[in-house]
Design brief:
The complex is a heterodimer of chains A (about 280) and B (about 180). In chain A, about 70% of the residues lie in helices and about 0% in strands. Chain A has about 280 residues and is mostly helical. The longest helix of chain A is centred in the C-terminal third of the chain and has 27 residues. Chain B has about 180 residues and is mostly helical. In chain B, about 65% of the residues lie in helices and about 0% in strands. Chain B has nine helices and no strands. Chain B starts with a helix and ends with a helix. The interface between A and B is large, with 39 and 53 residues.
Chain lengths: ~280, ~180
């Protein structure tokens, strides 16, 4: 323990910088070990400056801790602001993933059940329709007034809205595809049927994004969902092949939808920025 | 409440404890950094960075040694990280008469503190600013020669030779 203390005048000189090097060194070495002299010295320091620095520290300390999704994104090398924007996406939350898993689970159950019945293809069709549809639902609630809690913040942010929407759509598409891919492994028929929903799901997402340039995102996604289910139902009544939608000609049609939607999106993406369509 | 206990509370997420640590340690830290960095804005930033680092890394304090020394270690290294050029020398020469502290410190710090009879003090002040800066960075601020080189903006080899010369000159002056 220290018994010696720096003379108050010495500390005042030190605080003012009016001190030679040798004495300054002495004071500094002593200060590290002496709380009393540190307290004395604190009296001679600019309070305003200290208050200012503390305000800055509080701001950093009070910043909310990033959640699981955001932290794992950061660890994957995603840049900070993009990670924050992605983590705020309603359809990139654990609850949404749980909902998707349940939907896929029922589809897989249906497929397994139907495989033992009179119409084995029907179950697979249900799974494919659901798997292709999930990303559209995810994208529908990924952005826009009413569904996105950060919508107002996003409108005021310097990032272009269409970029935000596309980033989120890509993330939703990727996670949904992974989930559906995992679920597909549980299907009774593990052959060509496992991957045929990929093109449809991409085309549906792009179509709903393209439509979102002329209608509200929710309306656009609803319309795409409606058309998709209607087409799938029609195909389900096809006499020879219920899965005709997913065969060669069908896949070509999906590629066409993808190309047209991408074109529309590229030309009209500015509309998403201004929000004129809604 | 002791500094170590406060630091433990900070590690547990206690904002009030961080505030207390800040009240105790920010003043001298700001002053000491200001002697090594001529830019007041940068000093403020480094004090801020240091306490944010204390908040985030309080559990890294191993419970040994002075908390003040631990905080200084963070602060001086933040300063080195931020400095691109050496700070302008803040060196004056005045007569010295400082009593020594009775602290348990390293041999070299002991030397720093043993300015009692004025011999060492005047010897230190007679050193060229270059030699004194190297001595301050290594013996007083506890930096490695590599870190001192970065702080002073000179090659590591130069730090070593200047340190040797500083020691030789001090020894000579005190002989």
């Amino acid at each position: 323990m220290t018994v010696w203390h720096a003379a108050p005048t010495l500390l005042v000189d030190y605080a003012r910088g009016e001190i030679d090097e040798a004495r300054a060194h002495s004071v500094e070495a002593h200060l590290l070990a002496c709380a009393t002299c540190r307290a004395t010295l604190a009296g001679g320091v600019d309070r305003e400056q200290l208050k200012r620095i503390w305000a800055e520290i509080e701001e950093v300390v009070d910043a909310p801790r990033p959640g699981v999704v955001e932290r794992s994104l950061l660890r994957l090398g995603v840049r900070e602001h993009v990670a924050r924007l992605l983590a705020a996406t309603p359809s990139l939350r654990l609850s949404w993933f749980a909902a998707e898993t349940i939907a896929l689970g029922f589809a897989v159950l249906a497929a397994n059940d139907a495989a033992r019945g009179a119409h084995p293809d029907l179950g697979l069709l249900v799974f494919l329709v659901v798997a292709a549809l999930l990303p559209v639902c995810g994208v529908a609630v990924a952005y826009g007034p009413g569904v996105d809690p950060t919508y107002e913040v996003g409108v005021a942010s310097p990032m272009r809205m269409h970029r935000l929407l596309l980033i989120r759509a890509a993330a939703v598409l990727a996670t949904s595809t992974l989930l559906a891919g995992g679920a597909a492994l549980l299907l009774p028929q593990l052959d060509w049927g496992v991957a045929v929903w990929l093109l449809p799901s991409l085309s549906l997402v792009l179509a709903s994004l393209a439509l979102a340039t002329v209608a509200r995102p929710l309306v656009a996604s609803g319309a795409v969902t409606f058309v998709w289910i209607a087409v799938a139902m029609t195909a389900a009544f096809h006499r020879d092949d219920r899965l005709i939608l997913f065969r060669g000609a069908g896949q070509v049609a999906f590629v066409l939808v993808i190309l047209v939607s991408a074109l529309v999106l590229a030309r009209r993406r500015e509309v998403l920025d201004t929000g004129r369509s809604r | 409440m002791g500094d170590a206990a406060l630091l433990a509370a900070v590690a547990g997420g206690d904002r009030g404890a961080l505030r207390s640590l800040y009240e105790r340690h920010a003043p001298w830290l700001a002053l000491r950094l200001a002697r090594r960095c001529a830019d007041p804005g940068l000093v403020e930033e480094i004090v801020q960075d240091t306490f944010v680092a204390v908040w985030k890394g309080a559990e890294r304090y191993l419970g040994q040694g002075e908390v003040a020394a631990w905080i200084w270690g963070i602060g001086i290294r933040r300063l080195i990280d931020r400095l691109r050029r050496p700070p302008p020398a803040l060196l004056r020469s005045e007569p010295v008469s400082v009593p020594a502290g009775a602290i348990e410190v390293s041999a070299e710090e002991q030397v720093m503190l043993g300015i009692e009879h004025g011999d060492l003090g005047s010897a230190l002040n007679r050193l060229s600013p270059e030699l004194r800066a190297v001595l301050q960075a290594t013996a007083l601020d506890g930096l490695t020669t590599k870190e001192a080189a970065k702080l002073l903006g000179i090659p590591q080899g130069t730090v070593k030779t200047r340190l040797m010369r500083a020691r030789a000159e001090l020894r000579e002056a005190l002989a």
